[in-house]
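Lecture notes, part 5. Sequence design as translation. It can be helpful to think of inverse folding as translation between two languages: the language of shapes and the language of residues. The source text, in structure tokens, appears below.
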């Protein structure tokens, strides 16, 4: 208990910028809190009974009807506050933020989504036609604060669809609320807030919506959300190929899986090989392909490189960063019975 109080005191002092230690994040003090809680339980005479009591108390707490609205309300305020604080304290990553913000402002005589930062269309960097949907909002709100607020709102809105998904699966309220808590407090979610704005944040609501419509809802609605998700960025098609594999193997929805995979592949190939070079400077093409240069030159060679070196490809998928990501979720995405 004394160690827990000390950790909380250090966190409070850090927030007030009066702390004796140069803590720049709260993850390590949180580990101290978890260790203190575990030590407290293990120090009990009847450890098994103490663990059962703690689990039952946590279950009742999570199952309360007011838990979800309280959780989402608090995290909405924290998400908005984080984005506004970073922006107003000059912690905005100005280069990327200006790319997006200035691309939403019309420039007469220039290509669509022209941004002065690049002196060319943003579509030459990333093919994100989703940004066209934000231009009317930017015209109504002539301020960069629009993107500062949209970013946390889009990220936060994903939890509403996640709750609907878990309810449709018949997940108990306590487990559902715990999953929503993990989503809103996940390190990836917190890190995403630091960016102030990136268009990829709209993947949260669109992909959750796509997953929600895979069973319920008309085919045209699934197709519309599929197009909306692809419009976020040129590489979303690759992610959707993985999702299509899940549809085929886990849910035996082979027709919908084939359509999803075909749409994803066509979108990514056309965007990278035709659309982005259309707006890029002469002979530049899609400059981010160099990130996969070790696998081959060009899209075709890279894909062949994956196929020719399957063991190395699988080892790349099991990189420490990916393992840490799923470890935060306790590897629950892999526990579904196929």
């Amino acid at each position: 208990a004394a160690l827990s109080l000390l950790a909380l005191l250090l966190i409070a002092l850090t927030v007030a910028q009066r702390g004796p230690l140069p803590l720049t994040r709260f993850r390590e003090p949180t580990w101290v809190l978890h260790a203190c809680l575990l030590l407290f339980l293990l120090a009990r005479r009847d450890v098994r009974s103490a663990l059962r009591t703690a689990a039952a108390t946590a279950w009742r707490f999570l199952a309360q009807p007011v838990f979800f609205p309280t959780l989402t309300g608090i995290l909405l305020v924290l998400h908005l506050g984080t984005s506004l604080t970073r922006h107003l304290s000059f912690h905005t990553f100005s280069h990327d933020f200006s790319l997006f913000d200035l691309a939403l402002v019309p420039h007469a005589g220039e290509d669509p989504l022209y941004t002065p930062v690049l002196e060319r269309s943003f579509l030459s960097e990333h093919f994100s036609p989703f940004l066209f949907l934000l231009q009317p909002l930017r015209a109504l709100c002539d301020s960069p604060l629009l993107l500062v607020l949209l970013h946390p709102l889009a990220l936060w809105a994903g939890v509403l669809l996640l709750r609907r998904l878990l309810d449709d699966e018949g997940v108990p309220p306590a487990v559902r609320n715990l999953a929503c808590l993990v989503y809103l407090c996940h390190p990836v979610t917190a890190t995403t807030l630091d960016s102030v704005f990136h268009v990829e944040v709209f993947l949260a609501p669109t992909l959750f919506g796509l997953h929600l419509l895979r069973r319920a809802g008309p085919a045209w609605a699934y197709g519309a959300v599929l197009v909306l998700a692809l419009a976020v960025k040129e590489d979303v098609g690759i992610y959707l190929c993985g999702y299509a594999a899940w549809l085929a193997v886990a849910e035996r929805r082979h027709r919908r899986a084939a359509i999803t995979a075909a749409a994803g592949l066509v979108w990514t190939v056309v965007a990278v090989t035709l659309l982005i070079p259309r707006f890029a400077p002469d002979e530049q093409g899609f400059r981010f392909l160099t990130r996969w240069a070790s696998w081959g030159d060009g899209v075709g060679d890279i894909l062949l490189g994956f196929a020719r070196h399957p063991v190395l490809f699988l080892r790349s998928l099991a990189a420490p960063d990916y393992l840490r990501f799923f470890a935060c979720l306790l590897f629950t995405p892999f526990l579904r019975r196929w």
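The translated text above is only one of many valid answers, since several sequences can fold into similar shapes. The chain has a mean pLDDT of 81.
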